[in-house]
Specification:
Layout: E1 2-3, H1 12-18, E2 24-26, E3 29-31, E4 38-43, E5 48-54, H2 58-76, H3 82-98, H4 100-111, H5 115-135, E6 143-144, E7 150-158, E8 161-165, H6 171-184, E9 188-192, H7 199-211, E10 218-220, H8 225-234, E11 240-244, H9 247-259, E12 264-268, E13 274-277, H10 283-295, E14 307-311, H11 315-328, E15 330-331, H12 346-361, E16 365-368, E17 386-389, H13 396-399, E18 406-412, H14 415-422, E19 427-428, E20 430-434, H15 438-447, E21 452-455, E22 470-471, E23 474-475, H16 482-486, E24 488-496
Parallel strand pairs: 1-15, 8-9, 8-11, 9-10, 11-12, 13-14, 13-20, 14-18, 17-18, 20-21
Antiparallel strand pairs: 2-3, 4-5, 6-7, 7-24, 12-23, 16-17, 19-22
């Protein structure tokens, strides 16, 4: 495993942006938190403080909700017709394209993400705004056959004010997954990025202002789960919460929604995804993908194939290949565009190291990795990609989401055996199936508990394809046409002769 010390020279806009502390974006303006409390923003690659961000208090949440409600009633939800909303979304996409390099660099500094991976995220975010700009003018209802004496029809209306709570692993991309359909449907938004990675959302707020969105249509509130996220979840005048993050926090949000105003909730939560490789698979294709289905984004991705099931006939060959590939990966600061960047924080690194130690104590065999990667500077939260072999399906590294570069692999013999093992999880977000037998692929894809199944590929996303999980991986489907349903209410209207 090699290090790549050559970092990119930052764009002047990036330097200007990260050289100052940042306020809250409320009612189309920047303003301090009413408590003046700040959080320091750390670069996980070198542990240096980049800048500081404001912590939104419950009072700041109230200001943002009032602004959003006012905008919804007077402007965005009433005076802006769908074509005008579409034009603004397209303009915002153009501004993001103009500043793509800046957004990439901000993501890399703030999250640790390698620049080429940040490029994918930014381009995906742009494409989602383009996709939902088209939807703004195509949200329709139905006319229903209720007899000659009546006419019945349905219309889809915006919810009103929606709270969008975003995780730290894909800060900009997942923010746009929520913002784009919410805005296209005519809602006003309270966006709360993760406290560890708020900078790209704050830069996006500047672009939203530049594009000409009306004040209050998008408000960006930074801060941790307590007090900021809790105040959003508890608020009586927020009509919906869309949350991406841990299952434990998702359950708390559902409780808050029920105890406040029964607000609508959609959740994209944890994953412990099975990646199933049969011995009749195209091994060249498997080998070209296996390293990234296992360790992309330093394992900080809920869809990754962190449970690896390989049929006996090709098991040794693929494990040997995975080890060789892992040992050749470069690791370093995201700005040097290595294969793998750092974990998000010291706390996350310690959590992952704890799981690795538990795996050793639980009888799993450590095949490779398992250690903190010591950089020349002696700083940063870097871990080696790690593989365990195991037999006991009940151990923590098999059952719990680690959110780090740790994969647990085991061998299987029959289709029925692997289906039972793959479904032995409280999570059901995603799964991969590799086989040249289309009948087998169809059969197992129907049997696997997962909201997203990839056959002979992995981690495939497109703005038109719904994404979301089953069981304790969440509720509701983001992306695609399905997201329109998340951000609208269906109303039935009867006319009598």
């Amino acid at each position: 495993m090699i290090q790549n010390p050559k970092e990119a020279v930052l764009h002047s806009k990036t330097v200007d942006f990260v050289s100052k502390d940042h306020q809250l974006f409320i009612d189309g303006m920047w303003s301090e938190s009413n408590t003046n409390q700040k959080l320091q923003v750390e670069n996980p690659a070198n542990e240096e403080v980049i800048c500081a961000i404001s912590v939104a208090s419950p009072g700041d949440v109230e200001r943002a909700v009032q602004s959003a409600r006012r905008c919804f009633k007077s402007t965005w939800g009433s005076k802006f017709n769908p074509a005008e909303r579409s034009k603004l979304l397209l303009k915002l996409a153009d501004l993001m394209e103009r500043d793509k390099q800046v957004l990439m660099e901000i993501e890399s500094l703030d999250n640790g993400k390698p620049l080429s991976k940040a490029q994918y995220d930014v381009e995906s975010a742009i494409n989602h705004f383009l996709y939902y700009a088209g939807w703004a003018t195509k949200i329709t209802g139905d006319t229903l056959p209720v007899g000659n004496q009546h006419i019945a029809l349905t219309v889809r209306e915006p919810l009103g004010v929606v709270g969008l709570i975003v995780p730290w692993n894909f800060p900009l991309m997942i923010a746009v997954w929520k913002l784009a359909p919410a805005l296209a449907c005519g809602n006003c938004c309270i966006l709360k990025p993760a406290e560890q990675t708020s900078l790209s959302a704050l830069y996006l707020a500047d672009l939203i202002h530049e594009a000409g969105f009306p004040p209050g249509s998008v408000n960006v509130l930074t801060g941790p789960g307590l007090p900021t996220g809790q105040a959003i979840s508890d608020h009586q005048d927020i009509d919906k919460i869309s949350f991406t993050g841990s299952t434990a926090v998702g359950k708390k949000i559902m409780q808050s929604a029920a105890q406040s105003n029964l607000k609508n909730v959609s959740l994209e939560l944890g994953g412990k995804s099975p990646n199933i490789i049969f011995d009749d698979a195209d091994l060249a294709k498997v080998k070209s993908s296996l390293i990234w289905t296992s360790f992309y984004n330093s394992g900080q991705e809920c869809t990754l194939g962190s449970r690896l099931y390989i049929q006996r006939g090709v098991y040794e060959e693929l494990i040997s290949h995975l080890q060789k590939e892992a040992e050749s990966l470069s690791i370093g600061s995201g700005l040097s565009d290595p294969d793998l960047g750092p974990l998000i924080s010291r706390a996350q690194m310690e959590t992952v190291l704890g799981y690795i130690e538990d795996g050793k104590q639980s009888g799993a065999r450590l095949v490779f990795g398992g250690r903190k990667r010591q950089m020349e500077s002696g700083r940063g939260y870097f871990l080696e990609p790690t593989l365990f072999e195991y037999e006991d399906d009940s151990i923590k590294i098999v059952q719990e989401e680690i959110f780090g570069p740790v994969v647990a692999a085991t061998v299987f013999d029959t289709l029925d055996e692997v289906v039972e093992k793959a479904n032995n999880s409280k999570y059901a977000l995603a799964a991969g199936i590799w086989t040249s037998d289309i009948s087998k692929a169809i059969r197992i894809s129907k049997q696997i508990d997962a909201g997203n199944v990839w056959v002979n590929g992995y981690d495939l996303f497109d703005p038109c394809v719904p994404f979301g999980g089953f069981k304790q991986s969440g509720m509701g489907k983001e992306i695609g046409k399905s997201a329109i349903e998340l951000y609208t209410l269906e109303k039935s209207i009867w006319f009598s002769a």
